[in-house]
Write a structure and sequence with these properties.
Blueprint: H1 4-36, H2 44-48, H3 54-60, H4 79-88, H5 91-95, H6 105-136, H7 138-151, H8 156-169, H9 176-199, H10 204-212, H11 217-252, H12 261-270, H13 274-305
Helix pairs in contact: 1-3, 4-13, 6-7, 6-9, 6-11, 6-12, 8-9, 9-11, 11-13, 12-13
């Protein structure tokens, strides 16, 4: 309970702020609904021109504020509305035997997860290979690291369409490979930086001790540098898997994809269904949380077996 109490406190604070923001965000829509029902509200033309402030509208129409919490297409849905939509597109469909229906977020989450895992694997391999090269070669260190840092200044939203176009030009069909490349692009940098830090973490005394044992460079890597880098590596992997998921979702937006959480967000925006957008966002957050938790469990088991954690 001691570990859960801070988490629950933060969640309660977020929920309270969320509910407090619903009324001012939805007041204009609520007044439109009330007006269509025949209630007396501020004239519609005044609201359309934003001549009246939101707070004045709320004061003048206090009896209609509650409508903002029950709109079918709210600007800002309540947590209950988002949870209900999320349940309809996941739990209900799973119970009805249609978990992989194209209207199910389980199906779209699976499509996004595949590209995320491919991109994560590619980014991890590239990041670890680059880190080893940087640690063991000063030339690579002076040449690769600056370019790796500069690459992170390029907005992924601008880079994603370029990767998609280039992939189609070289004959790569489908959207899985371009999305995986975009995912790997965001993933490799935290792995690279964390692995470099980890491989360089052994002190000079430890390295000198191995030299007195006549250990080769490979033995020093396997017996000292690699084990010492494990805590840094797993920390970087947890950042990398979340970044890989973001990269996949961003990669789904300019591809015209019809499947995936990014596609659900885009379709929800095009058809004006905020609840679909919020449900997809929460599904992505839950998926990221599950992936990070699995990596955290792997870290605990690995470090415990290595004797680096009680």
């Amino acid at each position: 309970m001691r570990s859960l109490l801070p988490i629950l406190t933060v969640l309660a604070a977020i929920a309270a702020l969320w509910y407090a923001a619903v009324a001012p965000m939805n007041i204009r829509g609520a007044l439109d609904v009330a007006e269509r029902a025949g209630a007396e509200v501020v004239p519609a033309e005044s609201r359309a021109r934003f001549d009246t402030s939101i707070w004045q509208l709320m004061v003048d129409n206090a009896e209609h504020i509650g409508l903002g919490y029950n709109l079918e297409r709210p600007r800002l849905p309540t947590p209950v509305q988002v949870g209900t939509e999320l349940w309809k597109t996941t739990g209900e469909m799973a119970l009805n035997g249609r978990p992989m229906s194209k209207r199910s977020l389980i199906y779209h989450g699976w499509i996004t997860l595949q590209s995320t895992l491919w991109g994560f694997a590619l980014g991890t391999v590239l990041g670890m290979a680059g880190a080893i090269a940087i640690v063991y070669s000063r030339v690579v260190d002076m040449s690769l690291m600056p370019w790796a840092i500069i690459s992170q200044t390029i907005p992924i939203v601008a880079l994603a369409p370029m990767i998609i176009v280039l992939s189609s030009q070289v004959g790569i069909e489908g959207r899985t490979v371009p999305k995986a490349i975009i995912s790997a692009y965001l993933c490799y940098f935290p792995v690279l930086v964390g692995m470099v830090k980890g491989l360089r973490s052994p002190g000079a005394a430890q390295l000198d001790l191995l030299k007195t044992y006549s250990a080769s460079g490979l033995q020093a890597f396997l017996k000292l540098r690699l084990p010492a880098s494990m805590p840094y590596l797993f920390t970087s992997l947890k950042i990398g898997i979340a970044a890989a998921l973001v990269g996949t979702i961003v990669g789904e937006l300019p591809t015209g994809a019809i499947s995936g959480l990014g596609a659900r967000i885009l379709i929800g925006d095009q058809f004006g269904t905020p609840l679909a957008i919020w449900a997809a966002l929460f599904a992505a957050a839950i998926l990221a949380g599950v992936l990070v938790t699995l990596l955290d469990l792997m870290q605990r088991v690995t470090l415990r077996r290595m004797g680096m954690q009680a």
